[in-house]
Amino acid sequence: MTEDILSPALAEAASDIEKALERLLPPVIGPEARLLEAMRYATLSGGKRLRPFLTLEAAGIFDVKRSCALRAAAALECVHCYSLVHDDLPSMDDDDLRRGKPTVHKAFDEATAVLAGDALLTYAFDLLAAPDTHDDPRVRLELVAILAQASGPHGMVGGQVLDLAAEVPGADFDLGQVTRMQKMKTGALIQAAAEMGAVLGRASPEARTALRAYAHDLGLAFQITDDLLDVEGRVENTGKAVAKDAARGKATFVSILGVERARAQAERLAEQAVNHVAMFGSRADRLTALARFVVDRKS
Amino acid sequence: MTEDILSPALAEAASDIEKALERLLPPVIGPEARLLEAMRYATLSGGKRLRPFLTLEAAGIFDVKRSCALRAAAALECVHCYSLVHDDLPSMDDDDLRRGKPTVHKAFDEATAVLAGDALLTYAFDLLAAPDTHDDPRVRLELVAILAQASGPHGMVGGQVLDLAAEVPGADFDLGQVTRMQKMKTGALIQAAAEMGAVLGRASPEARTALRAYAHDLGLAFQITDDLLDVEGRVENTGKAVAKDAARGKATFVSILGVERARAQAERLAEQAVNHVAMFGSRADRLTALARFVVDRKS
Lengths: 299, 299
Hints:
2 copies of one chain form a homodimer.
Chain A lengths: L1 H23 L8 H11 L6 H12 L4 H22 L9 E2 L2 E2 L1 H4 L2 H20 L7 H15 L4 H12 L7 H26 L4 H28 L2 H4 L5 H4 L5 H24 L8 H12 L3
């Protein structure tokens, strides 16, 4: 029943965001074509598009024009994709595959991967600042501020540093440290995704807080489920090498809580997320379905 | 005579920007302290502070409050410094020293250098978007847009890709290609520096264009002089290994034009720059002195 309303909406959002990125990213021409091609390679390779979906759904609650929401969502996805490109670098996670395809530094080279990541991050702010994103410059500025904070040293990038620290043998993160790390590394941008939709819709402070809280819980539930999949999953389903964290002896929600308690915690968070958006009634049906899907997914 | 008005102003700006960065960068606390320390290491290590000086001087023409101009200048310097951190990486220029000190990936590690660069870039937009930068959100948004465009795929990052392409044996760039590469790699941010001062001061379109044109010519004059110093300089003066470009067989203004014509061209550009700001009278005295200094400098 959940999938009845969610699957088509997720598929439509993924298709729309793919088209939006295709249209909004700079065309591959001129002497810097290699960079522009790498930017596209990094972003147009599919993925769940969870974050853009959140922006589109949050904006949809307030009847924001879809073309505006898509620009903001595309900017946010550029930031997410840049972070994957840099995370995959040999000096970081050293991954050769991403969604079953060679990572950017494998398909191009390491220098191009660093620069394509830099370019995507920069371009995201360029996209948000442009008039097409919203008539009101104050709204655009607020989007810039939200995205910068969510992805900066106290957000995603800070979380990545903590994640690297967690891998040092003997780091032995406890539940509080793992939670903090995940809230920064993945949670901050997921929250920003929902909040940007609210800002585009000039939501009331209460509505904005509710969407932030929803995304906060959704993000943690998503991450705990990722850790569960990392333990239980198979290469076929996730498209990347699994049980990698366990092999490294790195603390995760599952290594600390165990499978059963981790699963229960993810489900509790998903229900909490659902409650946060109850105030929007049927307008939040797909967000509700998403929260349940996130903990039930198999990949 | 030139140095009489320029040296103290440059020193004061360098000191002010150092203090502003010290104050504006996140304090080094919490589990992500290593990242925050690397951000400071990358930015608080001195340097000419040419770009912030341009912002301060351009803003000064229009009596912009110095604390606002310093915030914008600090944001811009964060972007400049992030680009140096990434340029120095082993996969790029592979430099061990910067301004006579170990580069960030040497003083910390490669992953931290990538992430500290990412964090500085992101933080720059955070700084610009915050209310302290300017009362008017439209002005802040315009600063964001200028900085994003100057440092993105068609600006600084694009220029870096062209610079890497120029190093491929047999690339054999001609004057047009070298000029385009330098305009993107260093010129775009130098232009943005002056333009951001003009925007803060709500300069007329004519005044803004004049300052852009000044910075355009100054940037090229600066780069040609850099190439001359690369050939003529000594390690003691520039604090980095010299004649590196020549050793790599890479095309530069000097390799294409020869020393004499390159020097004449730099001087012509500096005079052109001076003419662009003549409309500001004595308010541009220091910008005038700077243009002359840039081509006369020994390091």
